[in-house]
Specification:
Length: about 475
């Protein structure tokens, strides 16, 4: 519910904007279209605010590092085991006379870009005017540095802009900052974790667009830290139109050689059984594996080349016969894997997505001791015999899981081809295992968001998926 005082303040602001009596009402600002193309003449700030026009704005994350000669007494309210409490930023409290969000905390101060002004020029000017931090044309100051990270769009009922975010490392004494009273009421030195805890407790205390800029920054920073690829076509793939990436709601795990790795012993047994089936029916030696490499499974190859039809009862006989291997003598309980899966945020739904058949996957999961940790097994029959070499399999898996946004799906598989198709479909894909069975050398694909040696490495690349990692 909107407070009556807020409604009154908003009414007064609109009246002042119409009268042109707000601070800097006549300042000409850089207005743009939805694609960040500047309009020919810009417009007065009051008109931009009154009509909520698209414009340009700057945001600056001010990381604070103490000089060796300085010391600050600091007590964190954040838990000790969840983040680096030695990382700080400077947070502004906006002046009470601002025409937009007066008195709010701003974790990424900056300003509206003036007509004919560049993003960098504006960021430097705002830092100097509001806090007395001086930068030259290249964005550098002695003891400090400023660099551009990305440009991003933002809009709500109050403001629409294309913002450019910069990062500053400031090494001076906070007490020596020269605050512009009309703009800044105070500057607070806070750890990143304390800022996040405060935002989680009451977002209404914070500037909405500054908050959004900080969330983007934390996403960018985390991606840099874990070496995540920014793939074309994703929310984070264009630093000139950088977006918040949806948090995963679904995780799809391949089964064989992904949830476990046994030096391909199970795979070799399956290959032998399939080869026996082929040779016992006078097919050429080696054909089974050729069909597998070409079509994703030998069965799909048999269908593609006219040896089977989908509704042929012999298909199920084939599947039962070739998967009749002693799984429980080949695989054993993996307590480390179980513990990891149990600590994934329970709101994220987990599925096994396999090119094999359900009963084979069930036996593997039972042997590993994780059969109770997945919502469902999506197998080759559920996909109407489409393999993960085809987008159709991913389309079926999405439908079964109820996933409508591909970027909310995280996919782990040991096959480069499967990873490539998953990425083409829009899923966030991770290659598990970097040694190829066929070639015996390292495998890689630029379509994977990450490449890891084993499934146990998930916490190192996706700490945010786990409940105990939350700040």
């Amino acid at each position: 519910m909107t407070d009556a005082k807020d409604i009154l303040s908003e009414t007064k602001l609109i009246s002042a904007l119409r009268e042109g009596s707000t601070r800097d009402a006549g300042e000409r600002v850089c207005t743009v279209d939805r694609h960040n193309i500047p309009t020919p003449d810009g417009c007065p700030r009051s008109e931009m605010r009154l009509n909520n026009l698209w414009h340009r704005a700057t945001f600056v994350i001010i990381r604070h590092e103490l000089l060796k000669s300085e010391s600050v007494n600091y007590i964190s309210s954040a838990p000790h085991d969840i983040c680096n409490r030695d990382e700080f930023l400077l947070v502004q409290r906006r002046s009470r006379i601002k025409d937009y969000c007066p008195g709010k905390l701003d974790p990424s101060p900056g300003g509206v870009v003036g007509f004919g002004e560049s993003y960098l020029e504006n960021a430097g000017r705002e830092m100097e005017e509001e806090m007395g931090i001086n930068f030259d044309a290249s964005g550098n100051e002695e003891g400090s540095s400023m660099k551009r990270l990305f440009t991003f769009p933002f809009e709500n009922e109050r403001v629409r802009f294309w913002g450019e975010l910069f990062e500053v490392t400031y090494c001076g004494d906070v007490e020596n900052l020269k605050l512009q009273e009309e703009e800044v009421e105070e500057v607070l030195r806070m750890s990143f974790c304390d800022v996040q805890a405060s935002m989680a407790e009451d977002e209404s205390e914070w500037l909405p667009d500054g908050l959004h800029a900080l969330k983007l920054y934390l996403q960018y920073y985390e991606d840099e830290k874990v070496g995540r690829r920014r793939l074309t076509g994703t929310s984070v793939g264009n630093l000139d139109a950088y977006l918040l990436r949806p948090r995963p709601k679904f995780i799809f795990f391949d089964c064989d050689d992904c949830l476990y790795f046994d030096s391909w012993n199970v795979a070799k047994q399956l290959t032998m059984k399939i080869e026996e089936w082929f040779t016992s029916r006078d097919f050429p030696e080696g054909l089974a594996y050729e069909l597998y490499k070409k079509h994703g499974t030998a069965l799909r190859g048999l269908m593609a080349e006219g040896h089977f039809k989908k509704d042929d009862p012999a298909v199920h006989d084939f599947l039962n016969e070739v998967h009749d291997i002693p799984i429980h003598s080949l695989l054993s309980t993996d307590s480390k894997l179980r513990d990891m899966l149990l600590t994934i945020d329970p709101s994220i739904r987990k599925f096994v997505f396999t090119a094999s058949v359900r009963h084979h996957a069930e036996r593997c999961l039972e042997a590993l001791g994780i059969a109770d940790l997945f919502e469902d097994i999506i197998d080759v029959t559920a996909c109407n015999f489409a393999t993960k070499h085809s987008k159709e399999a991913f389309r079926v898996a999405s439908r079964i899981a109820g996933a409508t946004n591909p970027e909310e799906c995280l996919f782990f598989d040991d096959s480069v081809r499967n990873i490539q198709v998953g990425r083409e479909f829009g899923w966030r894909s991770v290659l598990v295992g970097r040694m190829g069975r066929d070639c015996g050398t390292q495998i890689t694909t630029e379509t994977a968001e990450h490449e890891i040696d084993s499934i146990h490495s998930i916490p190192t690349i996706y700490p945010d998926l786990f409940t105990k990692s939350k700040c």
